[in-house]
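Task: sequence design from structure.
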């Protein structure tokens, strides 16, 4: 099937300018009529990516940063011409491996691209494994900030591990103290 550029833009829910960007980048197949009109030829090439944005902060104290992070991701996707179908925001540690919202987008095979601000926003460890497993399904992760400062990243990872372990340790102690207090009150 063939579409006028405006029809294709409406069908995909994007602007005409975005479709022209896709044409320039070779993301869609085109054909020019004898009158000079450009048409989009529907094929495997014209299947547009299902893009999901993922933004995360470590604590609720950083909620303002979460909103600005989300807006930066939206702006990045708009500039790249991506049609964003899903925006996921989450508050939780990068070391926590049971973040339900992240799990949901990782398991959703219809999502072809996940856009994240920085690698550590997705997870602290095991990122290479996640990327490889997504690649098996033809899915990718795109980072908008690819600054690689190994020393700073290593220090941040070290601080994160220590913080996480301390929180778990003190949480266990607090629970133990609360249990002991409860038992003491029941014995009175």
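Answer:
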């Amino acid at each position: 099937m063939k579409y006028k550029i405006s029809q294709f833009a409406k069908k995909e829910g994007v602007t005409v300018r975005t479709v022209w960007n896709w044409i320039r980048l070779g993301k869609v197949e085109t054909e020019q009529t004898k009158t000079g009109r450009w048409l989009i030829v529907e094929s495997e090439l014209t299947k547009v990516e299902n893009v999901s944005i993922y933004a995360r902060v470590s604590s609720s104290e950083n909620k303002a940063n979460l909103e600005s992070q989300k807006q930066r991701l939206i702006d990045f996707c708009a500039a790249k011409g991506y049609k964003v179908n899903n925006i996921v925001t989450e508050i939780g540690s990068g070391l926590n491996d049971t973040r339900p919202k992240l799990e949901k987008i990782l398991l959703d095979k219809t999502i072809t691209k996940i856009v994240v601000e920085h690698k550590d926003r997705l997870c602290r460890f095991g990122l290479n494994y996640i990327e490889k497993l997504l690649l098996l399904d033809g899915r990718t992760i795109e980072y908008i900030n690819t600054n690689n400062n190994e020393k700073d990243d290593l220090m941040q990872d070290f601080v994160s591990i220590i913080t996480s372990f301390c929180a778990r340790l003190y949480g266990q102690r607090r629970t133990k103290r609360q249990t002991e207090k409860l038992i003491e009150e029941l014995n009175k």
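Residues 62 and 72 are 15 Å apart (CA to CA).
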